[in-house]
Amino acid sequence: MNHYYALIMAGGGGTRLWPLSRRDRPKQVLPLTEDRTMFQVTVERLDDMFAPDHIFVVTGPDLAEPLHQSAPHLLDENFILEPAGRDSGPAAGLGTFHIAQHDPDAVIAVLSADHHIANEKRFLAALRCAHDAARQGYIVTLGIPPSYPATGFGYIQRGEPIENCGEFTVYHSRRFTEKPDEPTATAFLSSGLYSWNAGIFIWQARQAIAEFERQQPEMHAILKKIAESPQEREALWGQMKKISLDYAIMEGASNVAVIPVDIGWSDVGTWATLFEVLARDDHGNATRSSFDGHIQIDTHETLIVSDRMVVTIGIDNLVIVDTDDAILVCHRDRAQDVRDVVQRLKERGQDAHL
Asked: Can you name the CATH fold of 4-267?
């Protein structure tokens, strides 16, 4: 697999993990699931498959240095800077064009810097199978078995099987559905034919570029100009529309395959999803803290994130996040709404808390 590359998407702000995740210190540079940062964990799980010069990172100018410091074995020139966030579509396109210039025969695994994967060995095995399928002309996605009718994830419907690969089966993908309502998600779950879209895609660079040209011709033209004239990147980037990779490419892509995989995956996007990943005590409580003396009396199913003592009495199903300048207390069922707090802070001009 000499032409296999990893492209780690490491932009984004992680607003739903406020107040710990901030504009200048987003979730990918935080030690959320382990003592290492999310980015470090992501890079290190790839070490057995990708050489350092085959790992590329797309991120913003302000994050490049802290990310590189946490993974100093990666090459300076493999950090690809997007002048401003334009969502995952342009970011993936920028990285794909860049790698294609380096190696026109590249197969690229597009990954995120903020995913928790419990079974890393099985994940790497799935990436090997995905590489082989991509070489056959498929754009491959890893599908996660849904455990509940989530409305915050996209869904992939599988069709006929293409081939077996080790412990996995590669299927034709019939369609992508982005963030359905609850009745639709419930029907998807009952059918047994759908997987969650984990945002992990494996494709040949030339095939992906052809899809950008077919589906997003204006974006393709900008990316091509940037590849030909890197010094114009900042000026050209201002013309780029903001759109996710799912909407820009995957929903309309040709020749898509899905590999359903149970790898203990979680998109650590909210305090509720972090709670599900962390170890819990006999009362169902989880903590993320350097302090080991929290007092919890008649407290159940609650997440505490604080480096100083927190005392709780008679509470259930809460999230408590304590930082130097802000404290968040919310019900775990309302964890998605934390991003609304960030929006209110922006509207009030309270930039010091962003």
From this structure: Spore Coat Polysaccharide Biosynthesis Protein SpsA; Chain A (3.90.550)
